[in-house]
Write a structure and sequence with these properties.
Length: 286
C-alpha cells in the first residue's frame, strides 16, 4: 500500500505548493491541454464565466474572469514583465466590480502579459471579452447549458480552447500576443501567424567590393576567392594567403640570420622569438 502511494507524493507536493486559486488548478488538471505558443512569445486563455457556477461564480449574466498567459506547466508562453509599471490598479476597470479581485488577477496573471501597466492589461481584457460575452448572454437568458454556450461561441467563430465543467462553469478562449503586448483572440494553429515574435536577426554584412576595373590594385584586397582559379578574370591578382606566407617566410629568414650574427643573452633571445612570432602572424593577417 505504501509503495503504491509513493509515486503520487510529487504531485501532492506540487499541488500543495501551487498558488492559492484552487479552482483554477483543479479545472486545468481536469483536462485543459498544454498550450504551445508556436513562434508567438505570449499565448494564453481568456476565461469567461457562464454564471452557472457555484458561490462567487453564480450570477445573472456571463462575465470575464481574466486573461491568463499559459506559462510553466500550462504552456510555452513567456512571462514578460510590464514595460512601464507593476503598480496595482486603484479603481475597477469597466468589466470588473471588485478591485481586490482585479488586484489578484493583475499580480497573478497580468504581470506576465507583456503589457505596459495594469490599466493597459484590463483595458485589453475588457475589450477582448465584450464580443464573446455578447454571444453568451442570450444563450444564458434562454437557459442553454454550458456546452451549448461553448458551441454557440464556436459557431460565431471563437476558438474555444477548454470548457471547464467544474463548479466554476467557465469557457476558455485561446489568445496570443506578440512582443508589443497586444493580445488578440486566435486559434492555437494561428498563433505563429497572428502573434509572431521579433523578426529574425539581420544577415551578415556584405563583403568588400571587388577592385575597380576588373583588376587588382597593389596593397589592397582584391575580389573574394577560395582558390587561385577564382582570380583568373582579374589582372595582376595573387592568392592573398600564398602571398602572405611568402612574405612571412622571407621576413622570418632575415630575422633569424640577423640573430645568428650577434651573441644574444637568454632575455634577448626570448624577445627575438616573440618578435619573430608577432611579425609572422602580422604577415599572415595582412
Amino acid at each position: 500500500m505504501i509503495l503504491a502511494i509513493l509515486p503520487l507524493l510529487p504531485l501532492a507536493i506540487a499541488l500543495e505548493a501551487s498558488p492559492s486559486n484552487a479552482s483554477t488548478s483543479a479545472a486545468q488538471l481536469q483536462g485543459a491541454a498544454y498550450m504551445d505558443c508556436g513562434t508567438a512569445p505570449l499565448c494564453g486563455v481568456l476565461v469567461l464565466e457562464s454564471g452557472y457556477g457555484s458561490g462567487k461564480y453564480h450570477h445573472g449574466e456571463p462575465c470575464v474572469h481574466g486573461l491568463w498567459p499559459e506559462t510553466g506547466s500550462y504552456g510555452s508562453s513567456q512571462c514578460i514583465s510590464p514595460s512601464s509599471s507593476t503598480a496595482d490598479p486603484t479603481s475597477p476597470a469597466q468589466c470588473y466590480d471588485d478591485i481586490s479581485f482585479e488586484v489578484h488577477e493583475w499580480e497573478k496573471h497580468g504581470q506576465c502579459a507583456g503589457v505596459a501597466d495594469a490599466n493597459d492589461f484590463f483595458s485589453q481584457v475588457c475589450s477582448l471579452s465584450k464580443a464573446p460575452l455578447a454571444v453568451m448572454q442570450p444563450l444564458h437568458d434562454e437557459g442553454k447549458t454550458l456546452q451549448e454556450m461553448a458551441d454557440g461561441l464556436k459557431s460565431a467563430g471563437y476558438p474555444v480552447f477548454y470548457v471547464d465543467t467544474s463548479a466554476d462553469s467557465q469557457i476558455y478562449l485561446s489568445v496570443c500576443a506578440s512582443n508589443d503586448g497586444r493580445w488578440v483572440i486566435a486559434a492555437t494553429s494561428e498563433f505563429s501567424a497572428k502573434c509572431a515574435g521579433t523578426g529574425p536577426a539581420p544577415g551578415p554584412s556584405p563583403g568588400p567590393s571587388p577592385s575597380p576595373g576588373g583588376q587588382c590594385v597593389p596593397d589592397t584586397h582584391g575580389p573574394a576567392c577560395s582558390q587561385d582559379s577564382d582570380c583568373g578574370d582579374y589582372d595582376g591578382c595573387e592568392d592573398a594567403q600564398d602571398q602572405g606566407i611568402a612574405r612571412a617566410l622571407i621576413f622570418l629568414r632575415a630575422v633569424v640570420l640577423e640573430a645568428k650574427s650577434q651573441p644574444l643573452t637568454t632575455t634577448a633571445r626570448t624577445r627575438t622569438s616573440l618578435f619573430i612570432i608577432t611579425c609572422s602572424l602580422g604577415s599572415f593577417l595582412s
